[in-house]
Write a sequence for this structure.
């Protein structure tokens, strides 16, 4: 997985979203439009910028190597 569409926030019945071990370099703000009880786990991607989205339950290590 290399990107997430802006429309991710339209998934009104999503309960869990695991973004682990992908090649993501960005996350759209619309991810916070998911239901407030949706568990969002982000780890081991290439998200080297700081994302301060309160909706992300777990923010793990990222692969920001050369």
């Amino acid at each position: 997985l290399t990107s997430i569409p802006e429309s991710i926030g339209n998934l009104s019945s999503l309960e869990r979203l695991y973004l682990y071990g992908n090649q993501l370099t960005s996350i759209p703000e619309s991810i916070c439009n998911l239901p407030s009880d949706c568990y969002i786990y982000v780890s081991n991607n290439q998200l080297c910028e700081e994302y301060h989205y309160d909706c992300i339950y777990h923010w793990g290590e990222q692969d920001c190597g050369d």
